[in-house]
Predict the 3D structure of the following.
Amino acid sequence: METREIAVAAHDVTKIFHSNEVTVTALQNVSIDVHAGEFVSLVGPSGCGKTTLLRIIGGLTNPTRGSVETLPLANGRARKMSFVFQDVNLLPWRSVLRNVEFGLEPNTSISKSDRKERSMAALKKVDLDSFASSPPFTLSGGMQQRVGLARALAVEPDVLLMDEPFGALDNFTREGLQEQLAQLWEDMGTTIIFVTHDIDEAIFLSTEVVLLRSNPGRLVDLLPVDLPPKRWTYDVRSEPAAVTLHRNIRTSLSGRNYDAPPTVPTT
Amino acid sequence: MTAIPGSTGGSSATTEMTSRHHSHLMPIEDDPEASGHQNDRFLIRVIRNPGVVGVLSIAGVMAIWWIISVFLNPIILPSPVASAQGLYQIAIHGVLGPAIVVSLREMYIGLALGVAAGMLIGTTLGAFTKVDRVMMPYVNVLNSIPGVILIPSLVIWFGLGSETRIIFIVLITIWPMVINTRAGILNSATRYRDLSKVFGYSRIATIRKVLIPASTPYLLAGLRISMGLAIVGMIIGEFEVSYSGLGYLLISFGESLQTGRLIGVVFLAAMIGLLQVGIVRIVEARLLPWIKHS
Protein backbone atom coordinates (compact mmCIF):
# COMPACT_ATOMS: atom_id res chain seq x y z
CA MET A 1 0.00 0.00 0.00
CA GLU A 2 1.37 3.40 -0.89
CA THR A 3 1.89 5.80 1.95
CA ARG A 4 0.07 9.05 1.48
CA GLU A 5 1.90 12.34 1.94
CA ILE A 6 1.15 14.04 5.26
CA ALA A 7 0.59 17.81 5.11
CA VAL A 8 -0.18 18.63 8.73
CA ALA A 9 0.39 16.45 11.77
CA ALA A 10 -0.90 17.18 15.26
CA HIS A 11 0.88 15.27 18.02
CA ASP A 12 -0.85 14.82 21.36
CA VAL A 13 -2.24 18.33 21.40
CA THR A 14 -3.67 19.43 24.74
CA LYS A 15 -5.09 22.87 25.35
CA ILE A 16 -6.19 24.02 28.78
CA PHE A 17 -7.85 27.39 29.35
CA HIS A 18 -7.69 28.98 32.79
CA SER A 19 -10.07 31.73 33.69
CA ASN A 20 -11.12 32.83 37.19
CA GLU A 21 -10.11 29.57 38.86
CA VAL A 22 -12.12 27.63 36.29
CA THR A 23 -10.04 25.25 34.24
CA VAL A 24 -11.40 24.07 30.91
CA THR A 25 -9.72 21.33 28.98
CA ALA A 26 -10.54 22.36 25.44
CA LEU A 27 -8.48 19.59 23.90
CA GLN A 28 -7.00 16.48 25.45
CA ASN A 29 -4.26 14.53 23.71
CA VAL A 30 -5.52 14.98 20.18
CA SER A 31 -3.40 13.52 17.39
CA ILE A 32 -4.33 13.62 13.73
CA ASP A 33 -2.54 13.38 10.41
CA VAL A 34 -4.01 15.44 7.61
CA HIS A 35 -2.94 14.10 4.24
CA ALA A 36 -2.13 16.33 1.30
CA GLY A 37 -5.05 17.10 -0.98
CA GLU A 38 -7.69 15.86 1.46
CA PHE A 39 -10.74 17.77 2.57
CA VAL A 40 -10.90 17.10 6.31
CA SER A 41 -13.78 18.31 8.45
CA LEU A 42 -13.56 18.69 12.20
CA VAL A 43 -17.06 17.96 13.44
CA GLY A 44 -18.55 18.14 16.89
CA PRO A 45 -20.84 20.04 19.23
CA SER A 46 -19.86 23.47 20.49
CA GLY A 47 -17.22 23.26 23.18
CA CYS A 48 -15.55 20.19 21.68
CA GLY A 49 -12.42 22.17 20.83
CA LYS A 50 -12.70 21.96 17.04
CA THR A 51 -12.09 25.66 16.52
CA THR A 52 -9.29 25.62 19.08
CA LEU A 53 -7.64 22.75 17.18
CA LEU A 54 -7.93 24.68 13.92
CA ARG A 55 -6.47 27.80 15.53
CA ILE A 56 -3.56 25.78 16.93
CA ILE A 57 -2.92 24.32 13.47
CA GLY A 58 -3.03 27.83 12.01
CA GLY A 59 -0.63 29.18 14.64
CA LEU A 60 -3.19 31.56 16.13
CA THR A 61 -3.15 29.81 19.51
CA ASN A 62 -0.38 27.87 21.22
CA PRO A 63 -1.09 24.40 22.58
CA THR A 64 -0.57 23.82 26.30
CA ARG A 65 1.16 20.54 25.48
CA GLY A 66 1.95 18.70 22.29
CA SER A 67 2.77 20.17 18.92
CA VAL A 68 1.54 20.73 15.41
CA GLU A 69 3.83 20.20 12.50
CA THR A 70 3.28 21.51 9.01
CA LEU A 71 5.46 19.47 6.72
CA PRO A 72 7.25 20.95 3.73
CA LEU A 73 6.26 20.00 0.19
CA ALA A 74 8.15 17.28 -1.68
CA ASN A 75 10.32 19.97 -3.34
CA GLY A 76 11.33 21.31 0.06
CA ARG A 77 9.27 24.49 0.00
CA ALA A 78 7.34 25.24 3.19
CA ARG A 79 3.58 24.77 2.96
CA LYS A 80 1.67 28.04 2.88
CA MET A 81 -1.40 28.29 5.09
CA SER A 82 -4.36 30.53 4.85
CA PHE A 83 -7.42 31.07 6.97
CA VAL A 84 -11.11 31.81 6.42
CA PHE A 85 -12.81 33.26 9.49
CA GLN A 86 -16.33 32.67 10.66
CA ASP A 87 -16.93 36.42 10.98
CA VAL A 88 -15.16 37.20 7.66
CA ASN A 89 -13.15 40.08 9.12
CA LEU A 90 -13.16 42.28 6.04
CA LEU A 91 -11.68 45.75 6.43
CA PRO A 92 -14.65 48.09 5.91
CA TRP A 93 -12.58 51.01 4.62
CA ARG A 94 -11.13 48.96 1.77
CA SER A 95 -12.88 47.98 -1.43
CA VAL A 96 -13.55 44.31 -2.13
CA LEU A 97 -10.45 44.08 -4.34
CA ARG A 98 -8.24 45.86 -1.81
CA ASN A 99 -9.49 43.44 0.84
CA VAL A 100 -8.40 40.51 -1.30
CA GLU A 101 -5.05 42.21 -1.86
CA PHE A 102 -4.59 42.54 1.90
CA GLY A 103 -3.17 39.04 2.29
CA LEU A 104 -0.58 39.59 -0.44
CA GLU A 105 0.71 42.93 0.79
CA PRO A 106 3.26 41.68 3.36
CA ASN A 107 4.95 39.73 0.56
CA THR A 108 7.22 42.41 -0.89
CA SER A 109 8.38 40.18 -3.74
CA ILE A 110 5.00 40.57 -5.42
CA SER A 111 4.70 43.75 -7.48
CA LYS A 112 1.69 46.00 -7.16
CA SER A 113 0.27 45.06 -10.57
CA ASP A 114 0.91 41.37 -9.90
CA ARG A 115 -0.90 41.63 -6.62
CA LYS A 116 -3.86 43.24 -8.28
CA GLU A 117 -3.93 40.62 -11.03
CA ARG A 118 -3.77 37.71 -8.59
CA SER A 119 -6.49 39.25 -6.45
CA MET A 120 -8.76 39.73 -9.45
CA ALA A 121 -8.16 36.10 -10.41
CA ALA A 122 -9.13 35.02 -6.89
CA LEU A 123 -12.26 37.16 -7.06
CA LYS A 124 -13.12 35.57 -10.39
CA LYS A 125 -12.94 32.13 -8.75
CA VAL A 126 -15.71 33.12 -6.36
CA ASP A 127 -17.65 34.98 -9.10
CA LEU A 128 -17.23 38.38 -7.50
CA ASP A 129 -14.91 40.08 -9.98
CA SER A 130 -17.69 42.47 -10.97
CA PHE A 131 -17.85 43.72 -7.36
CA ALA A 132 -14.12 44.47 -7.14
CA SER A 133 -14.54 48.17 -6.45
CA SER A 134 -17.57 47.90 -4.15
CA PRO A 135 -17.26 48.64 -0.45
CA PRO A 136 -17.82 45.44 1.57
CA PHE A 137 -20.84 46.76 3.47
CA THR A 138 -22.84 46.86 0.26
CA LEU A 139 -22.50 43.07 -0.09
CA SER A 140 -24.72 40.37 1.41
CA GLY A 141 -23.40 38.05 4.12
CA GLY A 142 -22.81 35.24 1.65
CA MET A 143 -20.96 37.51 -0.75
CA GLN A 144 -18.80 38.87 2.06
CA GLN A 145 -17.89 35.32 3.01
CA ARG A 146 -16.87 34.68 -0.62
CA VAL A 147 -14.62 37.76 -0.46
CA GLY A 148 -13.05 36.21 2.64
CA LEU A 149 -12.51 33.01 0.68
CA ALA A 150 -10.98 34.92 -2.25
CA ARG A 151 -8.63 36.72 0.15
CA ALA A 152 -7.49 33.36 1.49
CA LEU A 153 -7.14 31.86 -2.00
CA ALA A 154 -5.16 34.85 -3.35
CA VAL A 155 -2.09 33.83 -1.35
CA GLU A 156 -2.26 30.45 -3.14
CA PRO A 157 -2.23 28.38 0.03
CA ASP A 158 -1.22 24.74 0.21
CA VAL A 159 -3.38 24.29 3.28
CA LEU A 160 -6.62 26.22 3.69
CA LEU A 161 -8.11 26.44 7.18
CA MET A 162 -11.79 27.30 7.41
CA ASP A 163 -13.52 28.05 10.69
CA GLU A 164 -17.28 27.52 10.32
CA PRO A 165 -17.29 29.89 7.37
CA PHE A 166 -20.94 29.27 6.49
CA GLY A 167 -22.24 29.05 10.06
CA ALA A 168 -23.93 32.44 10.08
CA LEU A 169 -25.63 32.13 6.70
CA ASP A 170 -29.14 31.07 5.80
CA ASN A 171 -29.73 27.62 4.37
CA PHE A 172 -30.03 28.56 0.69
CA THR A 173 -26.95 30.73 0.71
CA ARG A 174 -25.06 28.07 2.64
CA GLU A 175 -25.86 25.32 0.16
CA GLY A 176 -24.82 27.56 -2.72
CA LEU A 177 -21.49 28.27 -1.07
CA GLN A 178 -20.92 24.61 -0.19
CA GLU A 179 -21.32 23.74 -3.84
CA GLN A 180 -18.97 26.50 -4.94
CA LEU A 181 -16.38 25.42 -2.37
CA ALA A 182 -16.65 21.77 -3.43
CA GLN A 183 -16.04 22.75 -7.04
CA LEU A 184 -13.11 24.99 -6.15
CA TRP A 185 -11.53 22.25 -4.07
CA GLU A 186 -11.85 19.66 -6.85
CA ASP A 187 -10.25 22.13 -9.28
CA MET A 188 -7.38 23.18 -7.06
CA GLY A 189 -6.56 20.13 -4.97
CA THR A 190 -5.65 22.28 -1.98
CA THR A 191 -5.64 20.58 1.40
CA ILE A 192 -8.58 21.93 3.37
CA ILE A 193 -9.27 21.65 7.09
CA PHE A 194 -12.82 22.71 7.73
CA VAL A 195 -14.59 23.23 11.05
CA THR A 196 -18.34 22.71 11.20
CA HIS A 197 -21.07 21.48 13.50
CA ASP A 198 -23.26 20.58 10.53
CA ILE A 199 -23.01 16.86 9.76
CA ASP A 200 -24.62 17.19 6.32
CA GLU A 201 -22.20 19.93 5.40
CA ALA A 202 -19.26 17.76 6.48
CA ILE A 203 -20.49 14.78 4.45
CA PHE A 204 -21.16 16.89 1.37
CA LEU A 205 -17.72 18.51 1.38
CA SER A 206 -15.21 16.17 2.96
CA THR A 207 -13.12 13.16 2.15
CA GLU A 208 -12.63 12.54 5.85
CA VAL A 209 -14.45 13.60 9.00
CA VAL A 210 -12.78 13.93 12.39
CA LEU A 211 -15.27 13.64 15.24
CA LEU A 212 -14.71 15.45 18.51
CA ARG A 213 -16.61 15.42 21.78
CA SER A 214 -16.60 17.89 24.62
CA ASN A 215 -15.73 17.87 28.33
CA PRO A 216 -12.89 17.37 27.81
CA GLY A 217 -12.52 18.08 24.09
CA ARG A 218 -11.21 14.89 22.56
CA LEU A 219 -11.05 12.98 19.34
CA VAL A 220 -13.56 10.13 19.23
CA ASP A 221 -13.47 8.90 15.68
CA LEU A 222 -12.08 9.45 12.22
CA LEU A 223 -14.28 8.32 9.34
CA PRO A 224 -13.62 8.36 5.61
CA VAL A 225 -16.40 9.69 3.40
CA ASP A 226 -16.59 7.16 0.58
CA LEU A 227 -18.89 8.96 -1.79
CA PRO A 228 -18.20 9.68 -5.46
CA PRO A 229 -16.76 13.11 -6.31
CA LYS A 230 -18.67 15.93 -7.98
CA ARG A 231 -21.22 15.64 -5.21
CA TRP A 232 -23.08 18.71 -6.38
CA THR A 233 -24.19 16.78 -9.45
CA TYR A 234 -26.26 14.27 -7.52
CA ASP A 235 -28.35 14.22 -4.36
CA VAL A 236 -25.70 13.22 -1.83
CA ARG A 237 -27.93 13.33 1.22
CA SER A 238 -30.20 10.56 0.04
CA GLU A 239 -27.37 8.22 -1.02
CA PRO A 240 -27.55 5.11 1.18
CA ALA A 241 -23.84 5.40 2.01
CA ALA A 242 -24.38 9.00 3.15
CA VAL A 243 -27.39 8.06 5.25
CA THR A 244 -25.43 5.33 6.99
CA LEU A 245 -22.47 7.62 7.52
CA HIS A 246 -24.74 10.33 8.92
CA ARG A 247 -26.16 7.84 11.41
CA ASN A 248 -22.70 6.58 12.38
CA ILE A 249 -21.50 10.12 12.96
CA ARG A 250 -24.52 10.93 15.12
CA THR A 251 -24.06 7.73 17.10
CA SER A 252 -20.39 8.46 17.62
CA LEU A 253 -20.96 12.04 18.68
CA SER A 254 -23.85 11.34 21.03
CA GLY A 255 -22.45 8.09 22.38
CA ARG A 256 -25.82 6.40 22.27
CA ASN A 257 -27.14 3.60 20.16
CA TYR A 258 -30.50 4.06 18.62
CA ASP A 259 -33.16 1.38 18.94
CA ALA A 260 -34.89 0.06 15.88
CA PRO A 261 -38.09 2.01 15.26
CA PRO A 262 -41.10 0.46 17.00
CA THR A 263 -43.05 -1.75 14.67
CA VAL A 264 -46.51 -0.55 13.83
CA PRO A 265 -49.00 -3.22 14.85
CA THR A 266 -50.86 -4.58 11.86
CA THR A 267 -54.58 -4.85 12.06
CA MET B 1 -54.01 51.82 -3.37
CA THR B 2 -51.52 50.91 -6.08
CA ALA B 3 -50.55 53.80 -8.31
CA ILE B 4 -50.99 53.33 -12.03
CA PRO B 5 -47.63 53.86 -13.69
CA GLY B 6 -47.35 57.03 -15.74
CA SER B 7 -50.74 58.38 -14.84
CA THR B 8 -50.34 60.27 -11.62
CA GLY B 9 -52.66 63.03 -12.80
CA GLY B 10 -55.42 60.87 -14.21
CA SER B 11 -55.61 58.48 -11.31
CA SER B 12 -55.88 61.15 -8.69
CA ALA B 13 -59.58 60.55 -8.26
CA THR B 14 -59.08 56.89 -7.36
CA THR B 15 -56.14 57.51 -5.12
CA GLU B 16 -57.99 60.28 -3.41
CA MET B 17 -60.89 58.00 -2.68
CA THR B 18 -58.84 55.09 -1.45
CA SER B 19 -56.52 57.24 0.57
CA ARG B 20 -59.44 58.66 2.47
CA HIS B 21 -60.44 55.16 3.44
CA HIS B 22 -57.01 54.04 4.43
CA SER B 23 -55.38 57.27 5.44
CA HIS B 24 -54.62 55.98 8.91
CA LEU B 25 -52.47 53.27 7.34
CA MET B 26 -50.37 55.49 5.17
CA PRO B 27 -47.31 57.56 5.91
CA ILE B 28 -48.05 61.13 4.92
CA GLU B 29 -45.06 61.54 2.60
CA ASP B 30 -46.23 58.74 0.32
CA ASP B 31 -49.00 60.61 -1.46
CA PRO B 32 -48.44 64.32 -1.38
CA GLU B 33 -51.00 64.95 -4.13
CA ALA B 34 -53.59 62.52 -3.03
CA SER B 35 -55.66 64.44 -0.55
CA GLY B 36 -57.63 67.64 -0.54
CA HIS B 37 -55.66 69.05 2.37
CA GLN B 38 -52.74 69.99 0.19
CA ASN B 39 -51.79 73.04 2.20
CA ASP B 40 -51.70 71.13 5.48
CA ARG B 41 -49.44 68.53 3.99
CA PHE B 42 -47.15 71.16 2.56
CA LEU B 43 -46.90 72.83 5.93
CA ILE B 44 -46.13 69.56 7.67
CA ARG B 45 -43.36 68.85 5.20
CA VAL B 46 -41.88 72.31 5.61
CA ILE B 47 -42.01 71.99 9.38
CA ARG B 48 -40.29 68.61 9.25
CA ASN B 49 -37.40 69.92 7.17
CA PRO B 50 -34.40 70.13 9.59
CA GLY B 51 -33.04 73.25 7.84
CA VAL B 52 -36.32 75.05 8.28
CA VAL B 53 -36.50 73.94 11.89
CA GLY B 54 -33.03 75.34 12.52
CA VAL B 55 -33.82 78.71 10.96
CA LEU B 56 -37.13 78.97 12.82
CA SER B 57 -35.44 78.09 16.08
CA ILE B 58 -32.78 80.77 15.63
CA ALA B 59 -35.38 83.32 14.62
CA GLY B 60 -37.43 82.46 17.72
CA VAL B 61 -34.49 82.87 20.07
CA MET B 62 -33.60 86.18 18.42
CA ALA B 63 -37.16 87.40 18.86
CA ILE B 64 -37.19 86.46 22.54
CA TRP B 65 -33.80 88.10 23.03
CA TRP B 66 -35.04 91.25 21.33
CA ILE B 67 -38.23 91.40 23.40
CA ILE B 68 -36.33 90.96 26.65
CA SER B 69 -33.75 93.57 25.64
CA VAL B 70 -36.47 96.18 25.18
CA PHE B 71 -37.10 96.13 28.93
CA LEU B 72 -33.47 96.14 30.02
CA ASN B 73 -30.66 98.65 30.19
CA PRO B 74 -28.52 98.10 27.04
CA ILE B 75 -25.44 97.75 29.27
CA ILE B 76 -26.99 94.64 30.75
CA LEU B 77 -28.46 93.28 27.53
CA PRO B 78 -28.28 95.11 24.21
CA SER B 79 -30.70 94.12 21.45
CA PRO B 80 -29.61 91.73 18.69
CA VAL B 81 -29.45 94.67 16.31
CA ALA B 82 -27.19 96.64 18.68
CA SER B 83 -24.92 93.60 19.02
CA ALA B 84 -24.72 93.21 15.26
CA GLN B 85 -23.92 96.92 14.98
CA GLY B 86 -21.22 96.54 17.60
CA LEU B 87 -19.64 93.74 15.61
CA TYR B 88 -19.91 95.78 12.42
CA GLN B 89 -18.27 98.81 14.03
CA ILE B 90 -15.25 96.95 15.31
CA ALA B 91 -15.00 95.26 11.92
CA ILE B 92 -14.85 98.48 9.93
CA HIS B 93 -12.48 100.09 12.44
CA GLY B 94 -9.97 97.35 11.70
CA VAL B 95 -10.07 95.83 15.18
CA LEU B 96 -11.87 92.61 14.45
CA GLY B 97 -9.93 91.38 11.39
CA PRO B 98 -6.47 91.30 12.98
CA ALA B 99 -7.95 89.83 16.19
CA ILE B 100 -9.52 86.96 14.22
CA VAL B 101 -6.27 86.34 12.35
CA VAL B 102 -4.24 86.25 15.56
CA SER B 103 -6.73 84.02 17.35
CA LEU B 104 -7.32 81.52 14.55
CA ARG B 105 -3.63 81.25 13.74
CA GLU B 106 -2.81 80.32 17.32
CA MET B 107 -5.80 78.07 17.63
CA TYR B 108 -5.11 76.04 14.50
CA ILE B 109 -1.38 75.73 15.14
CA GLY B 110 -2.11 74.57 18.68
CA LEU B 111 -4.87 72.24 17.55
CA ALA B 112 -2.77 70.72 14.77
CA LEU B 113 0.16 70.08 17.10
CA GLY B 114 -2.09 68.78 19.88
CA VAL B 115 -3.98 66.44 17.57
CA ALA B 116 -0.83 65.12 15.89
CA ALA B 117 0.94 64.55 19.21
CA GLY B 118 -2.20 63.05 20.73
CA MET B 119 -2.56 60.58 17.88
CA LEU B 120 1.08 59.61 18.11
CA ILE B 121 0.98 59.09 21.87
CA GLY B 122 -2.42 57.37 21.77
CA THR B 123 -1.28 54.98 19.05
CA THR B 124 1.89 54.15 20.97
CA LEU B 125 -0.04 53.50 24.17
CA GLY B 126 -2.68 51.40 22.42
CA ALA B 127 -0.25 49.32 20.41
CA PHE B 128 2.49 48.73 22.98
CA THR B 129 1.17 47.30 26.23
CA LYS B 130 4.40 47.78 28.14
CA VAL B 131 4.59 51.49 27.30
CA ASP B 132 0.91 51.76 28.18
CA ARG B 133 1.43 50.28 31.65
CA VAL B 134 4.22 52.75 32.40
CA MET B 135 2.63 55.85 30.88
CA MET B 136 -1.08 55.49 31.58
CA PRO B 137 -0.97 56.78 35.20
CA TYR B 138 0.63 60.03 33.99
CA VAL B 139 -1.92 60.34 31.18
CA ASN B 140 -4.74 59.96 33.68
CA VAL B 141 -3.30 62.58 36.00
CA LEU B 142 -2.57 65.08 33.23
CA ASN B 143 -5.95 64.50 31.63
CA SER B 144 -7.81 65.12 34.86
CA ILE B 145 -6.20 68.41 35.85
CA PRO B 146 -7.92 71.50 34.46
CA GLY B 147 -5.63 73.09 31.88
CA VAL B 148 -6.08 76.60 33.28
CA ILE B 149 -3.98 75.87 36.36
CA LEU B 150 -0.97 75.42 34.09
CA ILE B 151 -1.10 78.97 32.79
CA PRO B 152 0.98 80.67 35.54
CA SER B 153 3.73 78.09 35.11
CA LEU B 154 3.59 78.43 31.33
CA VAL B 155 3.94 82.19 31.61
CA ILE B 156 7.03 81.79 33.80
CA TRP B 157 8.56 79.28 31.41
CA PHE B 158 7.60 80.72 28.04
CA GLY B 159 6.68 84.38 28.64
CA LEU B 160 3.66 86.28 27.41
CA GLY B 161 4.01 85.64 23.67
CA SER B 162 1.89 83.61 21.34
CA GLU B 163 4.08 80.51 21.97
CA THR B 164 2.64 80.33 25.46
CA ARG B 165 -0.92 80.38 24.15
CA ILE B 166 -0.11 77.81 21.48
CA ILE B 167 1.47 75.53 24.07
CA PHE B 168 -1.58 75.99 26.27
CA ILE B 169 -3.89 74.96 23.41
CA VAL B 170 -1.68 71.95 22.69
CA LEU B 171 -1.84 70.92 26.33
CA ILE B 172 -5.61 70.95 26.47
CA THR B 173 -6.36 69.50 23.01
CA ILE B 174 -3.88 66.63 23.28
CA TRP B 175 -5.69 64.52 25.89
CA PRO B 176 -8.96 63.74 24.11
CA MET B 177 -6.88 62.60 21.15
CA VAL B 178 -4.64 60.46 23.35
CA ILE B 179 -7.55 58.82 25.14
CA ASN B 180 -9.66 58.26 22.00
CA THR B 181 -6.83 57.08 19.79
CA ARG B 182 -5.70 54.64 22.45
CA ALA B 183 -9.23 53.29 22.86
CA GLY B 184 -9.60 52.93 19.08
CA ILE B 185 -6.29 51.11 18.70
CA LEU B 186 -7.01 48.75 21.61
CA ASN B 187 -10.46 47.98 20.27
CA SER B 188 -9.27 47.29 16.72
CA ALA B 189 -6.29 45.30 17.95
CA THR B 190 -8.62 42.80 19.57
CA ARG B 191 -10.91 42.74 16.59
CA TYR B 192 -8.26 42.25 13.89
CA ARG B 193 -5.61 40.34 15.83
CA ASP B 194 -6.17 37.05 13.97
CA LEU B 195 -6.35 38.71 10.58
CA SER B 196 -2.95 40.36 10.72
CA LYS B 197 -1.41 37.27 12.27
CA VAL B 198 -2.78 34.92 9.61
CA PHE B 199 -1.40 37.03 6.78
CA GLY B 200 1.97 37.57 8.45
CA TYR B 201 1.80 41.30 9.17
CA SER B 202 4.57 42.81 11.28
CA ARG B 203 3.71 44.94 14.31
CA ILE B 204 4.41 48.19 12.47
CA ALA B 205 2.56 47.11 9.30
CA THR B 206 -0.43 46.09 11.43
CA ILE B 207 -0.50 49.49 13.12
CA ARG B 208 -0.20 51.36 9.83
CA LYS B 209 -2.50 49.31 7.63
CA VAL B 210 -5.07 47.95 10.08
CA LEU B 211 -5.17 49.60 13.47
CA ILE B 212 -4.96 53.29 12.51
CA PRO B 213 -7.55 53.14 9.70
CA ALA B 214 -9.81 51.01 11.90
CA SER B 215 -9.57 53.68 14.60
CA THR B 216 -10.79 56.58 12.44
CA PRO B 217 -14.23 56.72 14.08
CA TYR B 218 -12.48 57.15 17.44
CA LEU B 219 -10.05 59.68 15.99
CA LEU B 220 -12.92 61.77 14.68
CA ALA B 221 -14.71 61.59 18.03
CA GLY B 222 -11.53 62.82 19.70
CA LEU B 223 -11.06 65.49 17.06
CA ARG B 224 -14.53 66.83 17.71
CA ILE B 225 -13.81 67.21 21.43
CA SER B 226 -10.37 68.70 20.82
CA MET B 227 -11.75 71.24 18.36
CA GLY B 228 -14.23 72.45 20.97
CA LEU B 229 -11.49 72.65 23.57
CA ALA B 230 -9.24 74.53 21.15
CA ILE B 231 -11.70 77.41 21.07
CA VAL B 232 -11.89 77.39 24.85
CA GLY B 233 -8.11 77.33 25.02
CA MET B 234 -7.77 80.13 22.55
CA ILE B 235 -10.15 82.45 24.43
CA ILE B 236 -8.84 81.61 27.90
CA GLY B 237 -5.26 81.93 26.75
CA GLU B 238 -6.01 85.39 25.44
CA PHE B 239 -7.87 86.35 28.61
CA GLU B 240 -4.85 85.58 30.65
CA VAL B 241 -1.86 86.15 28.44
CA SER B 242 -2.54 88.59 25.65
CA TYR B 243 -2.89 92.06 24.22
CA SER B 244 -4.55 90.89 21.02
CA GLY B 245 -7.00 88.32 19.71
CA LEU B 246 -10.67 87.66 20.31
CA GLY B 247 -10.19 86.77 23.97
CA TYR B 248 -8.48 90.09 24.56
CA LEU B 249 -11.35 91.92 22.81
CA LEU B 250 -13.85 90.13 25.06
CA ILE B 251 -11.99 91.15 28.19
CA SER B 252 -11.54 94.77 27.16
CA PHE B 253 -15.15 95.20 25.96
CA GLY B 254 -16.33 93.60 29.16
CA GLU B 255 -14.22 95.86 31.36
CA SER B 256 -15.39 98.97 29.49
CA LEU B 257 -19.02 97.82 29.55
CA GLN B 258 -19.34 97.86 25.74
CA THR B 259 -21.85 95.07 25.95
CA GLY B 260 -23.05 95.29 22.32
CA ARG B 261 -19.54 94.68 21.00
CA LEU B 262 -18.92 92.07 23.67
CA ILE B 263 -21.95 90.03 22.65
CA GLY B 264 -21.05 90.48 18.99
CA VAL B 265 -17.66 88.85 19.64
CA VAL B 266 -19.28 86.09 21.71
CA PHE B 267 -21.49 85.38 18.73
CA LEU B 268 -18.54 85.29 16.40
CA ALA B 269 -16.74 82.78 18.63
CA ALA B 270 -19.87 80.63 18.64
CA MET B 271 -19.94 80.76 14.83
CA ILE B 272 -16.32 79.58 14.69
CA GLY B 273 -17.31 76.66 16.90
CA LEU B 274 -20.26 75.84 14.67
CA LEU B 275 -18.02 75.97 11.61
CA GLN B 276 -15.66 73.44 13.20
CA VAL B 277 -18.48 71.01 13.89
CA GLY B 278 -19.57 71.39 10.27
CA ILE B 279 -16.07 70.66 9.00
CA VAL B 280 -15.83 67.43 11.01
CA ARG B 281 -19.27 66.35 9.81
CA ILE B 282 -18.32 66.88 6.17
CA VAL B 283 -15.04 65.00 6.58
CA GLU B 284 -16.90 62.15 8.23
CA ALA B 285 -19.61 61.90 5.59
CA ARG B 286 -17.28 62.25 2.62
CA LEU B 287 -14.35 60.08 3.58
CA LEU B 288 -15.86 57.43 5.75
CA PRO B 289 -19.21 56.13 4.58
CA TRP B 290 -18.28 52.78 6.15
CA ILE B 291 -18.43 54.12 9.69
CA LYS B 292 -22.21 53.86 9.79
CA HIS B 293 -21.98 50.21 8.81
CA SER B 294 -19.25 48.94 11.09
About this structure: Residues 1-34 of chain B have pLDDT under 50 and may be disordered.
